[in-house]
């Protein structure tokens, strides 16, 4: 990260989103992506506009012929963190496509003509990215039990959204826009699910099994279910990206059927896990 960006980020966080210098008076946010290759967090300050209540950021790179690194990152890992002057939240980054992209870019240029000058410098189509706030679980109990319910609620909500998108044959902005919506939300769901299950298998479950040896067989069954769901997840991603490079295409053949199977398997798995684990977790914290 450049020292200039580091200074802007430090000033932004110290002054509730207000910065001076060339950005004085501008609306900025901090976008944290996960490195496509490194897997490490990468934070950049960006100007933004709004489409309704949704922030839009533009991958202009000042008109360079290559997309900025943060844009490549969010295509690989769509789940991002957004900081404004007053709040921090999680979002799914969804590039606009087709007619929808053109419409949003025209809005951007009307508000900030400089972006039109950037587009004139390069043959690449400058992306416009919507930062769609993810589902937030309602306030509930705390502790590990509350965390488990929160993650499960997030997974259920994201999968329901993927099912809805998979059933939309046209979508706002046409097939290209629908393809990107579906791709980004599906990958956000899959990556979070994978991390959640790995964390359970490597940390939570071994610890609980030590405390409750009589639950050993239950954890074996849950581990086997994790393996089944992981295979379904891999099939889902392959079907999602099958038509081409996965960026802007529609889902591959059989994608909707795979989403439905994932929904059935995951719902049963989460219900079973909650029924057995929540009483144990609450007792540990009680």
Gap from first CA to last CA: 45 Å
Q: Please tell me how large the radius of gyration is.
A: 21 Å
Shape: globular
- Along the chain, the helix and strand elements come as HEEEEHEEHHEHHHH
Number of strands: 7
Largest sheet, described in full? 7 strands, antiparallel
The helix fraction, in percent, is: 55-70%
Q: What is the oligomer described by this structure?
A: single chain
Mean pLDDT: 88
* Structure classification: alpha+beta
- Give the amount of beta strand, in percent: 5-15%
Q: Number of DSSP helices? A: 8
Structure explained in plain terms:
This protein is an alpha+beta fold and 286 residues long. 56% of the residues lie in helices and 14% in strands. The chain contains eight helices and seven strands. Strand 1 and strand 2 form a beta hairpin. About 2% of the residues have low confidence.
Helix-strand layout with pairing:
Elements: H1 3-14, E1 28-34, E2 41-47, E3 49-51, E4 54-58, H2 69-76, E5 79-83, E6 88-95, H3 98-111, H4 114-121, E7 128-133, H5 143-166, H6 175-211, H7 216-241, H8 255-285
Antiparallel strand pairs: 1-2, 1-5, 3-4, 4-7, 5-6, 6-7
Sum this structure up briefly.
With 286 residues, the chain is of the alpha+beta class.
Question: What would the keywords be for this entry?
Answer:
seven-stranded antiparallel sheet; globular; 286 residues; 14% strand; alpha+beta; 56% helix
């Amino acid at each position: 990260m450049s020292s200039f960006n580091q200074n802007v980020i430090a000033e932004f966080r110290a002054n509730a989103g207000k910065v001076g210098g060339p950005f004085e008076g501008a609306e900025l946010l901090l976008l944290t992506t996960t490195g496509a290759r490194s897997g490490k967090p990468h934070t950049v300050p960006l100007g933004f506009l709004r489409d309704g209540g949704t922030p839009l950021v533009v991958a202009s790179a000042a008109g360079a012929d290559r997309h900025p690194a943060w844009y490549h990152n969010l295509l690989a890992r769509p789940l991002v963190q957004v900081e404004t002057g007053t709040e921090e939240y999680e979002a799914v980054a969804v590039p606009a496509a087709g007619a929808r992209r053109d419409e949003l870019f025209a809005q951007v240029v009307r508000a900030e003509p400089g972006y039109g000058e950037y587009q004139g410098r390069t043959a690449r189509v400058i992306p416009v990215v919507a930062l769609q706030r993810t589902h937030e679980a309602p306030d509930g109990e705390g502790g590990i039990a509350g965390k488990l319910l929160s993650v499960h609620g997030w997974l259920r909500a994201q999968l329901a959204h993927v099912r809805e998108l998979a059933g939309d044959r046209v979508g706002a902005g046409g097939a290209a826009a629908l393809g990107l919506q579906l791709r980004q939300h599906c990958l956000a769901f899959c990556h979070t699910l994978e991390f959640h299950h790995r964390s359970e298998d490597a940390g939570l479950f071994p610890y609980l099994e030590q405390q409750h040896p009589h639950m050993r067989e239950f954890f074996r069954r849950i581990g086997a279910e994790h393996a089944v769901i992981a295979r379904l997840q891999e099939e889902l991603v392959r079907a999602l990206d099958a038509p081409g490079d996965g960026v802007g295409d529609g889902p591959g053949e059989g994608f909707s059927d795979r989403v439905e199977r994932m929904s059935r398997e995951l719902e049963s798995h989460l219900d079973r896990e909650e029924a057995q684990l929540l009483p144990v977790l609450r007792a540990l914290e009680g």
